[in-house]
Structure to design on (286 residues):
């Protein structure tokens, strides 16, 4: 029997995640949520992702989203809930997902046996997701599984994304990185969003970014040019390894054969998403 590795589990996660993440960048996202009375941009994003938590305050969103400026969150939450209830936003999420997946994947893929099988396997993986210390996962796990296979697949991908994301925050806290420091070090790896895009979407000023860089230099994590030192590279490697370990349970539950099968099934769907430029890859890297 083949043993599932952490690398294989991350590969499976990476194959699934674009199907979830494209939700936030789809034009249907802001169109649907604006129709409810929410402001496009940050307010729509915060409400769309936080709705499973209920009508929570800015503190909860700041804590669970981690790397957004508290002032940016407080500008929109809880004001968003006066424009649209969490229930209305949750209903809109399914309309958004139905629309963008149909548009990106096409009717043949939506109706395919492969998509139905992928949804079944992804949902099976979520059976092993733990709730303790996982607020965004747990809130989404309380929602009913949609009947339509493409919506069920998105629901499962969302559960797996938020489960891994909650674990990632545990790893960041263990590394003693605050939200901005986590963002700065991730940008310095060249694998995250650019500094400009991160500042613009997360609400941090150039002065706050520079101050975070100074704190990281004091810890020996950044050099004078803002690049990761050897210590910084090792810390980011440890964070990613801890994230893999904390997010391993659902893929271990699937087993190596079915994790590989799920990766194989969803890869063509993910390729279609990426080919359609449905994710802001132009803003990735330094």
């Amino acid at each position: 029997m083949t043993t599932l590795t952490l690398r294989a589990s991350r590969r499976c996660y990476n194959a699934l995640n674009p199907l979830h993440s494209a939700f936030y960048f789809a034009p249907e996202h802001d169109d649907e949520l604006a129709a409810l009375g929410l402001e496009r941009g940050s307010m729509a994003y915060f409400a769309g992702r936080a709705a499973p938590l209920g009508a929570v305050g800015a503190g909860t969103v700041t804590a669970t989203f981690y790397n957004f400026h508290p002032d940016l969150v407080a500008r929109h939450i809880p004001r968003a809930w006066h424009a649209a209830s969490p229930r209305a936003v949750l209903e809109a999420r399914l309309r958004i997902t139905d629309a963008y997946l149909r548009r990106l994947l096409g009717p043949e893929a939506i109706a395919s046996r492969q998509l139905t099988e992928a949804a079944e396997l992804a949902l099976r993986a979520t059976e092993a997701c733990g709730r303790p210390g996982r607020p965004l996962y747990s809130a989404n796990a309380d929602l009913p599984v949609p009947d339509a296979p493409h919506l069920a697949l998105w629901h499962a991908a969302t559960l797996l994304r938020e489960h891994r994301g909650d674990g990632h925050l545990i790893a960041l806290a263990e590394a003693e990185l605050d939200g901005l420091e986590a963002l700065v070090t991730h940008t310095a790896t060249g694998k995250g969003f650019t500094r400009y895009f991160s500042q613009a979407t997360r609400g941090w000023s150039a002065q706050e970014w520079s101050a975070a860089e100074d704190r990281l230099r004091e810890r020996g994590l950044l050099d004078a040019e803002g690049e990761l030192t050897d210590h910084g590279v090792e810390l980011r490697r440890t964070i990613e390894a801890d994230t893999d370990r904390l997010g391993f349970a659902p893929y271990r539950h699937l087993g190596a054969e079915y994790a590989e099968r799920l990766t194989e099934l969803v890869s063509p769907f993910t390729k279609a998403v990426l080919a359609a430029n449905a994710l802001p890859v132009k803003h990735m890297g330094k």
Q: What stands out?
A: The mean pLDDT is 96.
